[in-house]
Structure formats: structure tokens, C-alpha cells
Amino acid sequence: MTIGYTAGVFDLFHIGHLTLLKNAKGLCDKLIVGVTVDELVTYKGKRAIIPFSDRIEIVRSIKYVDAAVPQYDMDKLTMCKKLGATILFVGDDWFGTDKWRAYEKKFKEAGVRIVYFPYTRGVSSTQVSKALAAVRGE
Questions:
Q1: Which residues contact 26 (CB under 8 A, 6 or more apart)?
Q2: Residue 47: which residues within 8 A CB-CB, separation 6 or more?
């Protein structure tokens, strides 16, 4: 059985999120999704609009997701090892960066393949948040 893992905030769930999960599920037998806890979102300098308890329930309810787990830190390799995942799915905005080239070596040594998916053009939670703020006059 091939286990895949991906993680994200999944705030203001949109078609880009759904596309990522659908494509990921197509490449593994079991898809486990880490949902970033509110404290980690804040640590990253952002603020989730939708609370963690709601975001994880939304992700858990998606038909392509076999399990949703809290993501308490940014250590995806440790999580992959803990869950038995042999594939990590991430957005292609990380592809080719020095940081992710180094990650690729570590993941490969651990027997975990990284699959990069293209971001859905024109759709992001950040853009949705900015649009909402503009509409609200913030």
C-alpha cells in the first residue's frame, strides 16, 4: 500500500486545495493530510480566518482524503516517517529552491519521494483574504 502525505493550512478552502488533494489521491492508495494548527499559522506570521477545528473537519470530509491529522511543526520528513508515507506532495513554488534541493536528498535517503504539483493559477487563500479585506474596507 502506497501512503502519501501532504500538509497545509487549508484556510478558506478553494479549488486549488481540492485539485491538490484529488491529484495526490490519484498517486497513492492512502492519502493523509496534515492541517496546520492555529499556533503554527501564527508562528509563520499569518492568521487563519477559519479556526483549526473547522479546517481539519473540512479537510477530513473531502472524499480524496483518507485521514487528516494536526500539523504541529514544519518537519514533514518526521511526519512521513511516523505515518509510513513514501510520497510527499507539495506545491511547485518550492521546486528548485536551495532549501528543497537539500530536503530532496534527505527525503530520498529516507525512501520518501517528493512530488511537486503546480499551483492553481489565480487562486490562493492569500488572494481570497485580501479580497475579503478590501470588500470589508480593512
A1: none
A2: 41
